[in-house]
Predict the structure.
Amino acid sequence: MQKRWKILDAENEKVIALEEALKINKVICKILVERGFDSYEKAKTFFRPQLSELHDQWLMKDMDKAVARIFSAFKNEEKILVFGDYDVDGTTAVASMYQFLKSIYENVDFYIPHRYREGYGVSKIGIDYAKNSGFSLIISLDCGIKSTDLISYANSLNIDFIVCDHHLPDDILPEAVAILNPKQPGCQYPYKELCGCGVGFKLMAAIAEKSGLSPESYLCYLDLLATAIAADIVPMTGENRIMAYYGLQRVNKNPCNGIRALMQLAGVQKEMFITNLVFIIAPRINAAGRMDDARKAVQLFIEQDCDKALEFAELLHIDNTERRTADTTITEEALAIIEENEDMINRSSTVLYQEHWHKGVVGIVASRLIETYYRPTIVLTRSGEVAAGSARSVAGFNLYEAIHACKEHLLGYGGHFAAAGMTLLPENVDAFTQKFEQVVRETIHPNSLVPELVIDAEVSFSDLTMSFYNIIHQMEPYGPENMRPVFIARNVRDSGNSKLVKEQHIKFCLKQNNCSFKGIGFNMAQKFPLIESKKPLDVVFTLEENEWNGQKSLQLKVCDFRLSVEAINSVYN
């Protein structure tokens, strides 16, 4: 797929000043300035995160009310139900809060709604369960901010709610005893990008302080919090970066039995990074809710017996294997449908509907389709009497607004800029498809239909030393707004040893002046003729460390490449 290259810029005076202050490579200083760390003190704070820099939890609106209500429940021996969503953020939040409260109070249980029987977030079935089981206080995590009617229903049953959420609130807030959400109006909490588990973490910190407990009583759950931060794709800035930094330390040194079991089943032997949490741990947790029941994900995280934890992990592992099979099968079917229809190939959007597709993976399939056909994509399947599905967007296009413009064809919808879900009658799928295509075609900028590759800086191969890499490595953990640096090297040539691997990937051997590097480019086989041309290339890549037989070396993970300007000019001259 052709990509647009965008090379970031930084104010040269600030770059020079930072280079003089830090005494490190100017390329790294440029990246730091681009990311807002344009002074010695800011850079020091970035490279040396400290837990002491976390904000005071009492700054969060309603924190005093939430803690007072929980202590009232303690005093009156009320039953407390910890309620969370079925994804990684929700299950890690529930596992953390449940264990924390259970360590200081006996009458606590947890509840995870079933994805297909109850749907997303707070459910009437869950509230009825709480009433029938004698719970008078529900603490919702990663959900609840939009559950105005359901929380009113709970109030009518004399059940109080404390909402811990991070999603954008509507104009009307639910009538909860307390709402903890940095994004709500009037909340003075300085950092607005916490995930749901992060908001719960702040509540635990406040309860611990009020109870006179040591910080370790809640810091011990940082491994779960780091997993939530990684999986929920929240910005890796500020508090999120600090908590993920220390959470990763716990993952690598002393994880809970659940994470340890998942790592064991995945065959993890090296140091874990955020990307490992995203691609190894998170899919196995999410698979529980996609394919079966997410309750066992919480059971995995709270299990104190290593052998039993491994048994739960094996169940998640099986769910994930089934999820991957369904994902692969449906993606192949979907691509075949598009490729057999010329009209579909040339559209500005993709909408596909098949009654037999598994509801749990349609969102993943939508993302997979965008890798081939880069445009707003919706994948629908049958769910009872209705069609239901998930939508994924491309950079810069407001998916939610486009779906909102088609609302006359829908029974219900929700989501945000980049992702959404919807239900509609099967007989309305064709009309919705046509309307959605019309809206996208009329509103999307042509550039948004071409993926953008953001490049941090230009480098020479001579810059790429182990010392250079070690500093880049200290920019971990990576994530949104602090992504792994992407570089471009110009006028690079094949050394003569580049080759195709499995007819899909390219194993690079590249040289620039007197410096040579090996690298790998996945799924780039169609561009191999450019290598064979022996003409100078511009190569975009990230830098990685490779270890073989105890020897460490640097290699390139190639993102894209094309003929250099010099080579292009030679064609026309």
Q: What stands out?
A: The chain has a mean pLDDT of 93. Residues 454-572 form a domain with the OB fold (Dihydrolipoamide Acetyltransferase, E2P) fold (CATH 2.40.50.460).
